[in-house]
Structure formats: structure tokens, C-alpha cells
Amino acid sequence: LFVVFNILQQRTSLLHTSLKVKRTSFATVSDSFASVSSSAVRTVAERVGKGDFSTAYTPEEEKVHWLLNEVNGVTSHIPGSGSARAMMWNQIRGLMFDKGLPNFYITINPADVYNPIMKFLAGSEIDVDDMLPNEVPEFWGQSILIARNPTVAAKFFNLYMKSFL
Which among 4, 60, 75, 101 could bridge 40 via Cys, Cβ 3.0 to 4.6 Å? Predict the structure, then answer.
């Protein structure tokens, strides 16, 4: 499930990421993009990946570093990205401005590692009504069950939220 989300997020980032530049430096940035080779970009990207953010051995690499400082990536349509979170926070602030502050806050934390319904959804035959205290699932066994079958955890969460709401 997490691998699929990662693949979909990478696909979305490739399709929906755009670059933002100040209007005053657009001509200079576009000329720099046209004059930088892909090998220089690759070299600088490898160095940045290793934690070296400032070393440039050639003028072309210096130009790549300058581009990194001048160009901003816009990723607001990518779920889970910093821009998407900022956009959601702005929407919440707008709602609070329009509708007023909420009067009631609630935090829901369904603990699936201790819940016997999780075992039931995974296919175990248990009687939730006649369960003794020593038959409550143990943390370690339940954690392994969730790690091996994350779909059951998602079903549990969905069931829990629908029951609560």
C-alpha cells in the first residue's frame, strides 16, 4: 500500500511540478537553463544528494547552484508535499475567517494494535461479546498482523471512523 502511494506520488510530482521565478530575473534564468548541460546538473545533484550544497568546480556548476537558489518548485497538487499542506492550512484559515473559530475540537486515535476487531477483520474467529481480559490481543502479535496486512488496518480505520461519525 505504501509502495503504491509512493509510486503515485512520484508520478504526480513529475506531472504537476512547476517552476516559479521572479519576473525580474526570468530572462536571466531562462538563458541559464538553456546554457547548462545535463552532465553539470547531474554532477551537482549527486553532490547535493551527498550533503555538499556549495562546492562548484566549474563555471557551469556555479550556474547550476545559482539556478537552485533562484528557481522555486511549486508542488501544491502533490498529496503530502509541503505546498499541499500549506494550501490546506490556508483553506482552514479561510474557513475560520469566513465561519469563525470552531467551538469543539476532537482528536481520534484508534489503537488498532490493541483492538480485537482488528483480529476479526483479519479472519480470526473470535467472539467479541464473550472475550475474557486475557484474550485481548497482545501488542507484538497484533503489530505483526498489521504489518503483514495493511489493508486490514485501513478497513479497521474506515470502520472505526464511520462508526464514530
Answer: 60
- 51 φ/ψ angles, rounded to the nearest 5 degrees: 105, 0
3-state secondary structure 42-70: HHHHHHHHCCCCCCCCCHHHHHHHHHHHH
How far apart are alpha carbons 96 and 47 in whole angstroms?
A: 44
Burial class (CB in 10 A: 0-12, 13-18, 19+), 110: middle
Under 8 Å CB-to-CB from 142, ≥6 apart: which residues? 112, 113, 114, 115, 118, 119
Residue with cell 498482523: 145
Nearest C-alpha neighbor of 40 from the set 14, 73, 66, 16: 66
Q: Name the β-bridge partners of 19.
A: 73
Q: Quote the cell numbers at residue 66.
A: 545559482
Tell me, yes or no, if the pTM score tops 0.70.
Answer: no
The tens digit of pLDDT for each residue in 31-60 reads: 888 899 999 999 998 988 888 888 888 889
